[in-house]
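Reply to dn_fold:

You asked what the input looked like. This is it:
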Amino acid sequence: MTAVVDSLQTNWNQTQNYKAEFKQVVYSKKLHTKDETTGTIFVLKPGKIRWEVPSQKTVQILNGNRLIYIKDNRRRKTTVVDIYKDVSKSIDLKSLAFLAGNALFKETYTSVLGAEGPETVELKLISKAAPSESYLAEIDKKSYFLRALTTETADSKVRIDFLKTETNIQMGQNLFEYQPKPKDVVHENP
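and this is what came back:
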């Protein structure tokens, strides 16, 4: 197991950015529902994520603690832009920080080896600081990059599968910024 964590850490340290298609499935335990979305994620470490969901015509941009949520309003033929100056005050950023951070896996998590197949291995990563917080990471054995990440709370379970991952590619800073247009409906939030 130590070799898996070491290889994961080495690969993670060498990755400055990545782009992947994703499939996210959110299971609501209380409502007994399943919501599925697909799109593209762009990550520039540390702390920058662009999450595009074409079917919903939405884009979310996390740049540090600033979140910009962009959504087309088809009925009114406008774009609604919600800007949160410090999103850390209103939502838990742990899984996003995991995806876009400079994680030190051995120092931050206790790792438990899970199922292992010919192409993948599962690692349960349990936070040393908050043992109730954990992730189930499915790692590609060839590249030692994340194939899937599952988080679970009392209310929901979220699984994100990453497909067609490209690492250390040309990626402009403009992906992680948005300048509202004159006709955009902008809401500034604390």
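The chain has one domain: 2-189.
Hope that clears it up.
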